[in-house]
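User: Here's a chain of 72 residues. Predict its fold as tokens.
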Amino acid sequence: MTELTVDQTTADDQQMTTESIEQTSVLTELDTEPCPHPACDGSLDHSTYKGYDAVVCDDCATPAVCIFGDGE
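Assistant: Prediction complete.
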């Protein structure tokens, strides 16, 4: 039973690492894109929004993407 728990933990760690890489890739892809808000001329910047990883406009502070979760 202990081996199964260790194997499951390893699988969970690998999945979390893959999810983290995918989330970072999404945020990186959007970094420096123009703000989607029609009345804003700012650009998106990888930042945080309410404590979560996000891509936020550097002018109007509108989040374009926010990754909710504990980040682990």
